């Protein structure tokens, strides 16, 4: 029972708690005393423990989703936490500092500069990590001041993907028997992508055994 509740107990209940404290040579045990009288603070959640708590606290965000949709929703959040822990460590939430977040940002800055990744990839990791920690902080009423703001990267100019040439389409996609190496389901999916613009992952939900 936390201290703010212990102090509201009737005097008899409070005396029972005091008498229950173990002692040696008439000296109360400080560890037992802290636990029984409510002055011992509960252990802080680590980042990975916060992620486990997050799945339950944010359960409403997956209502109506299929198992595959839930998996795709969970994976980027798992990745963001995994990346953070690999750089900073699995720290208790209340011990995360501004320097920790800047170190994580520097990790992403280096990947953008040398690894060919985009600012968008980095920002997604920062957003997902922040979402997890902020949700747990709010829903568990932890009242922690998390240093999560002002870390986003500025998006550069987005390069346009050049379209396939008419000649390539005629010789590759529309050539006689061009798709005969695919089975019927795969051909249908490819033609559906061409005609509707849906993504391969969306098609895979309907026919997972084909991928």
Automatic annotation (TrEMBL):
Positions of the Core-binding (CB) domain: 45-137
A Gene Ontology biological process term: DNA integration
Tree of life domain: Bacteria
GO function terms (MF aspect): DNA binding
Keywords recorded for this protein, A-Z: DNA integration, DNA-binding
Record's protein name: Core-binding (CB) domain-containing protein
Organism field: Pseudooctadecabacter jejudonensis
């Amino acid at each position: 029972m936390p201290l703010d509740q212990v102090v509201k107990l009737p005097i008899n209940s409070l005396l029972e708690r005091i008498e229950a404290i173990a002692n040696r040579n008439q000296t109360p045990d400080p560890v037992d005393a802290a636990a029984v009288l409510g002055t011992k603070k509960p252990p802080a959640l680590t980042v990975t423990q916060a992620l486990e708590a997050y799945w339950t606290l944010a359960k409403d965000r997956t209502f109506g989703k299929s198992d595959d949709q839930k998996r795709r929703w969970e994976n980027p959040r798992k990745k963001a936490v995994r990346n953070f822990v690999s750089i900073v460590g699995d720290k208790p939430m209340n011990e995360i500092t501004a320097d920790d977040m800047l170190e994580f940002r520097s990790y992403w800055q280096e990947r953008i500069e040398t690894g060919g990744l985009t600012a968008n990839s980095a920002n997604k990791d920062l957003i997902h990590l922040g979402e997890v920690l902020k949700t747990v902080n709010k829903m568990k009423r932890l009242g922690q001041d998390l240093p999560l703001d002002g870390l986003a990267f500025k998006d550069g100019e987005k390069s346009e993907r050049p379209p396939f040439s008419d000649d390539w389409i005629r010789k590759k996609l529309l050539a006689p028997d061009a798709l005969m190496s695919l089975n019927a389901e795969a051909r249908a999916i490819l033609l559906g992508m061409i005609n509707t613009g849906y993504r391969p992952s969306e098609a895979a939900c309907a026919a997972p055994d084909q991928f």
